[in-house]
Design brief:
With 113 residues, this protein is mostly beta strands. The protein has a domain of 79 residues: Carboxypeptidase-like, regulatory domain (Immunoglobulin-like). It contains one helix and seven strands; from the N terminus they run αβββββββ. Strands 3-2-5-6 form a four-stranded antiparallel sheet, with no helix packed on it. It has a three-stranded mixed sheet with strand order 4-1-7, with no helix packed on it. A hairpin with a 2-residue loop joins β5 and β6. The longest helix is centred in the N-terminal third of the chain and has 16 residues. The termini are far apart.
Length: 113
């Protein structure tokens, strides 16, 4: 075999072994933060109508969760990262107004009085 034939065979082998057909994908995390409303179930029964107003323009129905460290439960609410003013109402009565800073992928707990 001559020198050019060996070179061609080596190049063909390199091409065949370099094409594995595997693909990889990467995805970033969603740019959202979260709020969780915490209160005592004795103080805030499940029958009350709770809602949260974010920055005086977004109204969201919310439910109150109990703060259990062993077994976290309850609903969390998506919010854009940054500084926000949240107001929580029970049956159209303001019970909490708070300025919060939300980081991306962070769950902020808001404790009701």
């Amino acid at each position: 075999m001559n020198k050019n034939g060996c070179l061609i065979i080596i190049l063909i082998l390199l091409l065949i072994t370099s094409c594995s057909g595997l693909k990889s994908s990467s995805y970033g995390l969603e740019n959202k933060g979260y709020i969780k409303i915490i209160g005592s179930k004795a103080d805030y029964s499940g029958y009350s109508d709770f809602y949260m107003v974010i920055d005086d323009n977004t109204k969201v129905q919310v439910s109150v969760s109990k703060d259990i460290k062993k077994r976290p439960e309850g609903k969390i609410y998506k919010i854009t990262p940054g500084e926000h003013v949240i107001m929580i109402y029970e049956d159209d009565k303001l019970i909490l107004k708070k300025r919060v800073f939300i980081s991306s992928q962070q769950i902020n707990k808001v404790y009701l009085p």
